[in-house]
């Protein structure tokens, strides 16, 4: 709203205008609107009255009448470019981004008014980023549906059909590693192991540390009897840095399939410490048993029996098994997904394995505190913070659902720092500059800003 004196007003309209300004300053917007309407009735051509009234109508959400006044201004006073800025803001609030972009661009091309220029640039920047993001998002939604369909076909043994879907995805975006990893699995299940190996290698050419491609490749080499390549690939897997629990599970699962008992002991113990999930402790005990460390295995099973309720597994069966080996020195091994129920069918064993996987999936998400601290670390890697800044940022982080899975912590760090800097510390920053500083695209920034802006800004959104 433009404040100040109005030049060359009709005396009566001037009085109503001043009254309207005073009511606005008191927060009495409805009364202010009535006073400005009265002033406009008395001086219908006055630019200042019309522009201010349009601004107040926009504040209460009456965009139809606000736009009508602004369009009259643009038509009758073509050199009063602020009306273009007002129209751009209104259409943005109405969600009509194409129209908003049109008027903001015209405003920036024609106006030299510095009062609204930076705001117009920021809003235009946001709109263009949002449009780009929405376009990419629609395309990604299409590809996600194709991936889901391909995965369904893969899981149901329709490998040839699944391959068609994965290839379709990769023809549109060859950086979707999930599609290529599953394509390699489809080839493997069809017996085309060399093709499976080549597809896994294509992932690793782009993403050297991709956990799924590395693990799949090790399994492919094992099946193909390529001992030398398998040894090399196992070394790579054991040296991979895994931060996500799903990645840790994938590594552990691969080690189990390849009977790498010594490595399993360490990995299962690590996952138990992270998740407190007793099934990992059970897996550790089996690995110890299979490497003839019977006393340690028995100790773990005794602790599990005492502290945890695990109805899917007969712990007594394993305790008896290890006691029998200790007594008789008779060599034996245990499968990692044995339930302890004799006579179980293969179908029952498979279902148990699926239930186990679902059960441990519950523990995949990082805790709120862990993610909050990691985000703060990311911010401090990119900018220098005072103690006041840190406290302010931690307050913002407390408003976010950081216990969720699949969070882009770098993007969230950029968004939180931007919101704190601009809206709380009141320092001038631009979204595109912050995105660049944190090493992410404007599209990614926009996605997470849209996701969390209401939580971070509340009414300011």
Keyphrases for this structure?
461 residues, mainly alpha, Serine Threonine Protein Phosphatase 5, Tetratricopeptide repeat, Cyclin A, domain 1, 3 domains, disordered N terminus, Tetratricopeptide repeat protein
Task: Summarize this entry quickly.
The chain is an all-alpha fold and 461 residues long. It is built from 23 helices and no strands.
Please tell me about this protein's structure:
- The chain contains 23 helices and no strands.
- It has 3 domains: 119 residues, Tetratricopeptide repeat domain (Serine Threonine Protein Phosphatase 5, Tetratricopeptide repeat), CATH 1.25.40.10; 123 residues, no CATH class; 93 residues, Cyclin A, domain 1 (Orthogonal Bundle).
- It is elongated.
- With 461 residues, it is mainly α.
- The two termini are 18 Å apart.
Report the order of strands and helices: HHHHHHHHHHHHHHHHHHHHHHH
- What is the number of E strands? 0
Largest sheet, if any? none
The Rg value, from CA coordinates, equals 32 Å
Intertermini distance:
18 Å
Q: What is the count of helical runs?
A: 23
| Quaternary organisation of the protein chains | single chain
- The fraction of residues in strands falls at under 5%
Instruction: List the uncertain runs.
Output: 1-9, 362-366
Organism: Caldicellulosiruptor morganii
InterPro entries: CellSynth/LPSAsmb/PSIAsmb (IPR051012), TPR-like_helical_dom_sf (IPR011990), TPR_rpt (IPR019734)
Protein name: Tetratricopeptide repeat protein
Keywords: Coiled coil, Repeat, TPR repeat
């Amino acid at each position: 709203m433009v404040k100040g004196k109005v030049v060359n007003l009709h005396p009566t309209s001037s009085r109503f205008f001043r009254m309207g300004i005073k009511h606005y300053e008191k927060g009495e917007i409805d009364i202010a609107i009535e006073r400005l309407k009265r002033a406009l009735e008395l001086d219908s051509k006055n630019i200042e009255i019309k522009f201010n009234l349009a601004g107040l109508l926009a504040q209460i959400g009456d965009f139809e009448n606000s736009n009508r006044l602004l369009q009259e201004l643009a038509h009758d006073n073509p050199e009063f470019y602020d009306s273009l800025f007002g129209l751009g803001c209104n259409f943005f609030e109405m969600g009509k981004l194409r129209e908003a972009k049109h008027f903001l661009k015209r405003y920036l091309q024609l106006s030299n008014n510095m009062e609204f220029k930076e705001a117009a640039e920021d809003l235009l920047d946001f709109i263009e980023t949002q449009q780009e993001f929405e376009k990419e998002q629609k395309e990604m939604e299409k590809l996600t549906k194709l991936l889901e369909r391909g995965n369904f076909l893969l899981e149901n043994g329709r490998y040839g059909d699944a391959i068609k879907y994965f290839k379709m995805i990769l023809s549109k975006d060859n950086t979707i590693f999930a599609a290529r990893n599953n394509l390699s699995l489809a080839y493997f299940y069809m017996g085309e192991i060399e093709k499976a190996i080549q597809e896994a290698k294509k992932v690793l050419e782009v993403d050297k540390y991709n956990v799924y491609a590395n693990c799949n490749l090790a399994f492919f080499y094992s099946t193909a009897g390529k001992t030398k390549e398998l040894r090399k690939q196992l070394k790579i897997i054991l040296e991979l840095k895994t931060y996500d629990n799903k990645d840790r599970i994938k590594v552990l699962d691969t080690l189990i399939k390849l009977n790498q008992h010594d490595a399993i002991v360490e990995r299962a113990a690590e996952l138990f410490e992270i998740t407190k999930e007793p099934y990992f402790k059970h897996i550790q005990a089996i690995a110890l048993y299979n490497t003839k460390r019977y006393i340690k295995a028995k100790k773990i099973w005794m602790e599990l029996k005492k502290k945890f309720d695990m109805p899917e597994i007969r712990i007594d069966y394993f305790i008896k098994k290890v006691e029998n080996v200790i007594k008789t020195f008779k060599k034996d091994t245990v499968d990692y997904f044995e339930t302890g129920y004799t006579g179980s069918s293969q179908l029952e064993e498979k279902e148990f394995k699926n239930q186990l996987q679902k059960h441990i999936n519950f523990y995949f998400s990082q805790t709120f505190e862990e993610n909050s601290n990691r985000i703060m670390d990311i911010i401090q890697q990119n900018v220098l913070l005072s103690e006041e800044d840190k406290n302010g940022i931690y307050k913002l982080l407390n408003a976010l659902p950081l216990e969720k899975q699949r969070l882009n912590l770098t993007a969230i760090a950029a968004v939180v720092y931007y919101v704190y800097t601009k809206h709380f510390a009141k320092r001038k920053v631009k979204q595109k500059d912050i995105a660049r500083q944190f090493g992410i695209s404007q599209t990614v920034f926009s996605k997470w800003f849209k996701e969390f802006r209401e939580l971070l800004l509340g009414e300011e959104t």
